[in-house]
Amino acid sequence: MKIVNVGLVALLMLTAGSCEKLDVVGTDSEKSFDKVLRQIPQAVNADEMNGGWSLAAPDNTARFIWSRNYAESPLHDVMLEFDAAPFIAAGLDPKRLPDNFAFYEGMIMVGTKLGGETLKYQGEATPLASYEQIVKLKRPAIGYHGAMDHYGVNVGDGDLFEWAKDMATNDKDIVFVLNPDPFIAAGVDPARIEGWAFAEVTVDDANGKPVQADKFLKPFDLL
């Protein structure tokens, strides 16, 4: 019996190690996210109000924010914050947005909680180290968008922050992505939105099959 148990433990350890090595999306997303952070260091800052880090769009109309410590996040662990003006001009009534949205000081925020853990770091907590915690602890929140060759973080129901796997071969190095449905339900006319593209894109459904979905997109080329 003891031999069987030892063999079983060895098998489980081998399987776990193999899974980690096979997680190409998780590993490569860390590398490419690091390149984005290094490309625009002036746009990456500590965000004490939200207990984490923020990466701002080059035109400062949107930010991706991720937590430094899930146990201390005041609201969400990952979120998008963006200028509300184009949406209000297109008919938005902010009061009709779902509960995972917040409207304040001319901005809209949408996000989600990932957990309640106290995150522990080997060394200093940094923007990259906090992203690595998402990959390590909340891997389902990270995805790969094959049609765009992007990695991304799911911050809500179809809302994402995406970045290019390879900025040298992609003209959309970072993209803020919103599900238009809540906005349309809250009065927005998609044809009147300025500063965001309203487009049909290919995404994977719950079963991993490609389907078409409408999105609001705000892309930026960083090179």
Key features of this structure:
223 residues; alpha+beta; six-stranded antiparallel β-sheet; 5 helices; 12 strands; 26% helix; disordered N terminus
How much helicity do the residues have? Answer: 25-40%
User: Runs with pLDDT <50, length 5+?
Assistant: 1-21
- What's the SSE pattern? HHEEEEHEEHEEEEHEE
Percent of sequence in beta strands: 25-35%
Q: Could you give a short account of the major beta sheet?
A: 6 strands, antiparallel
Given the C-alpha coordinates, what overall shape results?
globular
DSSP E strands, number: 12
What does this structure look like?
By secondary structure, the chain is of the alpha+beta class. The chain has one domain. Helices cover 26% and strands 31% of the residues. The protein contains 5 helices and 12 strands. The protein has helices spanning 2-22, 24-39, 85-89, 127-137, 181-185; strands at 44-47, 52-56, 62-67, 78-83, 101-104, 107-112, 142-145, 150-154, 160-164, 174-178, 197-204, 210-220. The protein has a 6-stranded antiparallel beta sheet. It has a 6-stranded antiparallel beta sheet with strand order 7-8-9-10-12-11, with helices on one face. The longest helix has 21 residues, at 2-22. It is globular, with a radius of gyration of 19 Å. Mean pLDDT is 90; it is low at 1-21.
Give the SSE map:
Layout: H1 2-22, H2 24-39, E1 44-47, E2 52-56, E3 62-67, E4 78-83, H3 85-89, E5 101-104, E6 107-112, H4 127-137, E7 142-145, E8 150-154, E9 160-164, E10 174-178, H5 181-185, E11 197-204, E12 210-220
Antiparallel strand pairs: 1-2, 2-3, 3-4, 4-6, 5-6, 7-8, 8-9, 9-10, 10-12, 11-12
Helix pairs in contact: 2-4
